[in-house]
Amino acid sequence: MFVQVFQGPVADTGEAREALDRWARELAPGSYGWLGTTAGVTEGGTLVAVARFESREEARRNSDRPEQTQWWMETAKLFAGEVTFHDLDQVDVYLRGGSDSAGFVQVIEGRVGDPARVRALLRRCEPDLAGFRPDLIGGLAAVSPEGDYVETAYFTSEGEARMGERAEPPARLREEFEELMSLFEISPVYHDLRDPWFYSPGS
Predict the structure, then answer these.
(1) pTM of the predicted model, to two decimals?
(2) Dihedral (Cα; 19, 5, 105, 161), 10-degree rounding
(3) Going from the N-terminus, what domains does the chain have, and what CATH number goes with each?
């Protein structure tokens, strides 16, 4: 799997959603290897979109389509500031993965110093995480060889997610989480999508 992320400030949430709705309606049927997109706007007005593809090559084929170029030229006008992009080849799916039934989504963005160790820790955490956080449906953790990290976590609801955050984890899980956090070169940024938008092939 390959993950492509773009984000930036938007002035009008409704216009941003209509732009993504139009992509799903008009461009998705002719897309290459597109597996789905999770998006939304934070309370601070930042649009975050996480698109999943079968491979980097298929994502590039989509980017090269004339209709994709035209759509982006129109959509780019909706941003009120700089738009940033992340292309991530190494993607780990944990627990039940993403879910279009999630009531709350958190996109966690950062940079890590040891991508291989981060991936190993995520795999070690998974069995303990399943029993400890029933509010966490699952997610995708994507990292580049250079250390760019984007995780998309899907929760049953924000209320249940906040309750889960306050719970005391088992000792081993706490140690693994502390090591994981120590690998971030700067503190990660959390983008809360309280009204997540889900797009899937055929929907």
Answers:
(1) 0.93
(2) -160
(3) 2-88+195-199 (3.30.70.100), 90-193 (3.30.70.100)
